[in-house]
Design goal:
The chain has helices spanning 24-37, 56-70, 85-97, 115-127, 139-142, 148-154, 170-179, 194-199, 214-225, 229-238, 240-245, 253-261, 278-290; strands at residues 8-12, 41-44, 76-79, 102-106, 133-137, 160-165, 185-188, 204-207. It is α/β, with parallel strands linked by helices. An eight-stranded parallel barrel has the order 1-2-3-4-5-6-7-8, surrounded by four helices. α1 crosses α2 (56-70) and α9 (214-225) runs antiparallel to α10.
Length: 295
């Protein structure tokens, strides 16, 4: 039986930049912030980490830095997806060699694979590594949506551990739980669906909001894991405005802006991402103040 890579709250970590490259001291400080708050896993070089704009060398050094700094205290999961299967295999192998405990592989974007193609793509990646692979289903970004039947086929592979489900389709989550074995984990990929997905048998969340509110997301998932969904539901509602504000513009613009306002990174993005619109930035600052996240 497969063991879950983690349960609870995993942070989809931003990558702090300077104008010249990755801000490694800020990255280590962000990791300390997460570990001190009890975050259960760190996801590096994913969508929220702006991996698509990083060079190959930056990605590997960032993964190595996170692995070294975390030092085995929680699992480190590296984003290693691509729209070329060959590239995804290479990225996955090298991320595993850099020390990642598991790999997060997004569905191929632009190349809109058929269901059979998706199964073959993930099988090729999983065959090429000895680390667990998490499927990442985010059709709003990729134009491709996995089905429960695809998950059931992938669940047969010994190296495919589960899915980060960010489709917003709770019916899909229910059917996946029905068709897949218990050891095929489901993690919410949307902060505002954490409690509902965990109620349906999910293992936790890969969270954007945990960048700014790690303790709150840890407490929410801990309540779910303890079966206290009354408390979890109230916490989910309490976090609603924050989760909403972090997606007023495309992720990770708002969350990185929030961290900059909190003094934890520079407000530096890589094109095509750019600074938040001034009116949205001002509104976001107000929400952070309401949640007591600004000194």
């Amino acid at each position: 039986m497969k063991q879950p890579i983690f349960t609870g709250s995993g942070v989809a970590l931003i990558t702090p930049f300077t104008r010249d490259g990755v801000d490694y001291p800020a990255l280590e400080a962000l990791l300390d912030f997460q570990l001190e708050a009890g975050t259960d896993a760190v996801i590096v070089c994913g969508t929220t980490g702006e991996a698509a704009t990083m060079t190959y060398e930056e990605r590997m050094r960032t993964i190595e830095t996170v692995v070294r700094h975390v030092d085995g205290r929680v699992p480190v999961i590296a984003g290693s997806g691509a729209n070329s299967t060959e590239t995804a295999v290479r990225l996955s192998r090298d991320a595993a060699s850099a020390g990642a405990d598991a790999l997060l592989v997004v569905t191929p974007f632009y190349n809109k694979a058929t269901p059979r193609g998706l199964v073959q793509h993930y099988a090729a990646v999983a065959d090429g590594v000895s680390k667990p692979v998490i499927v990442y289903n985010v059709p709003s970004r990729t134009g491709v949506k996995c089905t429960a039947e695809i998950y059931a086929a992938l669940a047969e592979h010994p190296n495919i551990a589960g899915v980060k489900e960010a489709s917003g389709d709770l019916a899909l989550v229910q059917k996946t739980r029905e068709l897949c074995p218990e050891d095929f984990s489901i993690w919410s990929g949307n902060d505002d669906e954490t409690a509902p997905i965990m109620l349906l048998g999910g293992s936790g969340v890969i969270s954007v909001a945990a960048n700014v509110a790690p303790e709150e997301m840890r407490r929410l998932t801990a309540a779910c894991l303890a079966g206290d969904f009354f408390t979890a539901g109230r916490m989910q509602l309490k976090l609603r405005r924050l989760c909403e504000a972090l997606f007023w513009e495309v992720n990770p613009i708002p969350v990185k802006t929030a961290l900059a306002l909190m003094g934890r990174c520079q407000e530096v993005f890589r094109l095509p991402l750019c600074e938040m619109e001034p009116e949205n930035r001002a509104r976001l600052k107000g929400v952070l103040e309401d949640y007591g996240l600004l000194d």
